[in-house]
Every structure is written in C-alpha cells, then in structure tokens.
Automatic annotation (TrEMBL):
The lineage of its organism: Bacteria, Candidatus Vogeliibacteriota. InterPro entries: A-crystallin/Hsp20_dom (IPR002068), HSP20-like_chaperone (IPR008978), Small_HSP (IPR031107). Residues 23-44 are annotated as: Disordered. It comes from the Bacteria. Belongs to the small heat shock protein (HSP20) family. It holds the Pfam family HSP20. This is SHSP domain-containing protein. Residues 39-151 form the SHSP domain.
Length: 151
C-alpha cells in the first residue's frame, strides 16, 4: 500500500483526493427537483433580506408579479411566514421560449426571527414589487412601576 502525499489544497480544506468515483452515490441537495414524491409541484421559495434597527426587525422580499391580495403574511412572536402566488400571463407559446428563469406559481417562506416581535404592531408595505415588513421588537428591558392600592 503506497501512501500518497496530500496536496496543499487538500490539507487546507480537509478534503481528500478520490481516484475512482465509482463508489460515489449521487445525493439530492435541497430538493432541487420541482416535484415531490407525490408528483405535486412544490412551492417556490422567496429570497429575503433581514436586518434590525434598535427597535425593529425589517424584512424585505421581492414579490414582483403578485397582486397584494395574492400575498398572505402570518406573523408570530418568533417567526414570519410569507405565502403567495405569481400569475403568468400566457402570451408566449411554451415551444417559443429559448430560456426561462423566472419563477411563476405559488411560493412560501418561513423565517425564524432573531428576536421576539409584537405581531399586532407589525406593518407590511408593497412598493415597486418589494414587500417590506416592519416588525417592532419586544422590549424585554422595559419595566413599569405599579402603585399598590388598599381595598
């Protein structure tokens, strides 16, 4: 059995050199297939940006191609779910396409929030195809003093 020296790249990344890839088994990552085992199409997933200010968590998502009535936003104290559907106008016959990358159909995305928020005080605004959610954080440090009354 001869020992082969590992390359600098293999040492740096911790990878190993494989001479024969017959032993490799293909693995599906992130469910790239558009259909599940039941044959139904899966929902697309939204891309989001999320950041925070001192008082709010701001979440932005591109929902171009959706009417506001086709978007549903469910907010809990620790998560947000955005669900909707993009409707495609069938102006072009399927055989006439050279290339297609735009996603049409239903989408959903559930986001775990980094801090608890007040769902009833949240705001949702759509402008130029961008959905912006302003989620007020719960101020856990806020205190109140209560006077004790006699009965």
């Amino acid at each position: 059995m001869s020992l082969k020296r590992r390359s600098f790249f293999e040492k740096l990344t911790g990878s190993v050199h494989v001479d024969d890839d017959d032993d490799l088994i293909p693995v599906e990552i992130n469910g790239d297939d558009a259909e599940s085992d039941t044959g139904e199409e899966e929902d697309g997933e939204l891309s989001i940006d999320m950041y925070q200010t001192n008082t709010d968590i701001i979440l932005r998502a591109v929902i171009a191609g959706c009417r506001p009535e086709d978007v549903e936003v469910d907010i809990a104290r620790d998560s947000v779910r955005i669900k909707g559907e993009r409707h495609e106008k069938h102006e072009v016959h399927e055989d006439d396409y050279y290339h297609r990358e735009l996603y049409w159909g239903s989408f959903t995305r559930t986001i775990k929030l980094p801090a608890e928020v007040e769902p009833q005080d949240a705001e949702a605004v759509e402008k130029h195809g961008i959905l912006t959610l302003k989620l007020p954080k719960i101020d856990k440090a806020r205190r109140a003093t209560v006077k004790v009354k006699t009965a």
